[in-house]
Design a protein that fits this description.
- Keywords: Membrane, Transmembrane, Transmembrane helix.
- With about 110 residues, this protein is mainly α.
- It has a domain at about 10-85.
- About 65% of the residues lie in helices and about 0% in strands.
Length: about 110
């Protein structure tokens, strides 16, 4: 997963975006976990292999489980950081940005 920075706790927009993105990533991780565990069980139960093929399958399955573990570890660490960094209540609405232009209306 790509490294993300924490949002500005005074910006309502950034706080809401960070919470939404984290929730989306958790949902995707749950789906990925279910599919991955189903595939591992299917391979272990259905594959009848000996020798080099069994060794290759064991390497691939262990790598997939390590990827799964790393995904959840990253999500949990970012979730903890997000909860400790952000305030409990959302900040007030972001003020409208001041628009400065050099255009002259005729």
């Amino acid at each position: 997963m790509k490294r993300r920075s924490l949002p500005d706790p005074d910006s309502r927009t950034q706080v809401l975006r960070a919470r939404r993105k984290h929730t989306e990533q958790v949902v995707l991780a749950v789906v990925f976990t279910v599919v991955e565990l189903w595939a591992v069980v299917a391979v272990v139960v259905l594959l009848d292999a000996d020798g080099v093929l069994a060794l290759a399958v064991a390497a691939v399955l262990s790598a997939s489980l390590i990827a799964l573990w790393d995904t959840w570890r990253t999500l949990l660490l970012f979730g903890r950081a997000l909860r400790s960094w952000l305030p409990e209540e959302l900040p007030t609405e972001d003020p409208e940005p001041v628009r400065t232009t050099n255009l002259v209306r005729l």
